[in-house]
Design brief:
The complex is a heterodimer of chains A (about 325) and B (about 120).
Chain A (H helix, E strand, L loop, with lengths): L2 E4 L2 E4 L6 H7 L17 E6 L12 H5 L2 E3 L9 E4 L7 E11 L4 E8 L10 E5 L5 E5 L10 E6 L5 H9 L5 E8 L13 E6 L3 H13 L6 E7 L8 H10 L3 E7 L9 E2 L2 H8 L7 E6 L1 H13 L7 E5 L7
Parallel strand pairs in A: 1-5, 12-13, 12-16, 13-14, 14-15, 16-17
Antiparallel strand pairs in A: 1-2, 3-4, 3-5, 6-7, 6-11, 7-10, 8-9, 8-11
Chain B lengths: L3 H5 L1 H18 L4 H4 L4 H15 L8 H13 L4 H17 L4 H13 L1 H5 L2
Helix pairs in contact in B: 2-4, 2-6, 6-7
Chain lengths: ~325, ~120
């Protein structure tokens, strides 16, 4: 029988056992609920070996390609090594190679790790400074084209980590980095499907990574990217995105501001509202939402009600912890 | 003799029904607040578990699970009118998918059997 390795220890399976059965029989507490492959509570990450097709059937394409699977649905056919989604936080040291101001409040950092990190554009990393503050930052870089990891940091009035990064974290300094995390990524299963991306603030960072990944992989369907900010000077990649849209005729870039009047091609209003009124029927669309949690939550619902199927909606909500 | 779950079309039927059903529920102002959470993906998966059970499919839910899971909603005022509204959306979903009337009746009977546990009666 195949063995299941968890935290360095191998557990032999018994006939007809699922991965969930084997682990639980050995006293490992894997959360689970329905045992029918529907609720996805028992999702595990396969680090080595291959899991069965059945155990991934219900997962969204992004999770499949990252080797996640449902423990209750997997009777392994070979030895596998697994981890709980939460217990993989190993920090490595990353060096700041480049620091550049992109707008009055947004800075770009390019980081280098000693061992290249395998990741997908759109995933995020956790950064921990010497004071022990940990915050998540999305990656704007594309592994196929960029050697360095790129994050974009917006100065948040109450965000102590953002102040520290922008004011004190300089080129040449090191910071602890853990990742990659998250599953808001481009998957190449539907190259002709239309794509809708909506980002507010630095929610643009992962979207740029995902967008570049889609273009790099030859996505053929139309791509609509909506970026919303409060003021025009916060549309921090405006020129670059306009140029990219001129280069690719199927890429449409829509910029909007909600705190002042727009001008020329910059619309006035909230990005999500403009996106949904431009595209009231989202059946068959792939949707990517990144940025303010309220926007992500509202837009996920509206996109679903507009016909998008739930597995086709990928989102990364930028939750900000309260600072005391 | 094939089971209800097989006759209705198995997992493919659940997949076809879940989005239609959840859209109906979310669009109904009288009950949508019970279904709106920050984690819509998890909520969507729960609807799928529920439909799998109602369609006679494999599940491990007990009456006690149903009670515990819905207790917070009961505390927020979940009552029979809400239960009936959800059941109505389930029926409408099945009709929309042209499920034969005798199978719809079986599904509605299973869904109806959860009422006391869902409402904590």
């Amino acid at each position: 029988m195949p063995t299941i390795t968890y935290q360095g220890k191998a557990y032999p399976g018994q006939p007809d056992e699922t991965v969930l059965d084997t682990l639980r029989r050995n006293g490992i507490e894997v959360p689970f609920s329905c045992c029918a492959g529907a609720c996805q509570t028992c999702m595990l990450h396969c680090l080595n070996g291959e899991v069965t097709e059945r155990s991934q059937k219900e997962l969204k394409p992004a999770l499949k390609s990252l080797n996640y699977f449902l423990a209750c649905q997997c009777q392994p056919e070979q030895d596998i090594e697994v981890a709980l989604p939460d217990d993989e936080d190993v920090y490595v040291s990353a060096r700041c190679v480049e620091k550049q101001q992109l707008s009055p409040t947004v800075w770009r950092f390019r980081l280098e790790t000693a061992v290249p990190m395998f990741y997908h554009a759109g995933q995020f990393v956790n950064l921990k400074n010497e004071a022990g503050w940990v915050r998540s930052y999305s990656l704007a870089s594309l592994p196929a084209e960029d050697e360095l990891l790129e994050i974009q940091v917006r100065r948040m009035p109450d965000g102590q980590m953002s102040h520290w990064l922008i004011d004190d974290f300089e080129v040449g300094m090191h910071i602890d980095l853990e990742g990659p995390n998250g599953h808001c990524i481009y998957t190449d299963g539907k190259p002709k499907a239309p794509i809708l991306m909506v980002g507010t603030g630095t929610g643009l960072a992962p979207l740029i990574g995902i967008l570049r990944d889609a273009l790099h992989q030859g996505h053929a369907g139309p791509i609509h990217l909506y970026h919303g900010a409060r003021s025009k000077d916060e549309l921090y990649q405006h020129t670059m995105l306009n140029e990219l849209a001129q280069q690719y005729s199927h890429l449409h870039y829509h910029a909007s501001v909600s705190g002042e009047e727009g001008e020329n091609e910059i619309q006035t209003g909230r990005a999500a509202d403009i996106a949904i009124s431009d595209h009231p029927d989202l059946k068959q669309w792939q949707i990517f939402l990144c940025g303010a949690p309220e926007m992500v939550r509202e837009m996920r619902k509206n996109a679903f009600l507009a016909g998008a199927s739930m597995p086709n909606i990928s989102a990364d909500a930028f939750t900000t912890p309260d600072h005391k | 003799m094939s089971t209800l779950f097989e006759k209705i079309g198995g997992e493919a039927a659940v997949d076809a029904a879940v989005d239609i059903f959840y859209r109906k529920v979310l669009s109904d102002d009288s009950i949508s607040h019970f279904f709106e959470t920050t984690d819509m993906e998890a909520q969507h998966a729960k609807q799928k578990s529920f439909l799998t059970m109602a369609f006679g499919g494999p599940n491990n839910y007990t009456g006690a699970d149903m009670r515990t899971a819905h207790a917070p909603l009961v505390a927020k005022g979940l009552n029979e009118s809400h239960f009936n509204a959800v059941a109505g959306h389930l029926q409408a979903t099945l009709e929309e998918l042209n499920v034969p009337a005798d199978l719809i009746a079986e599904v509605m009977a299973i869904a109806g059997s959860t009422k006391d546990d869902v409402l904590g009666l």
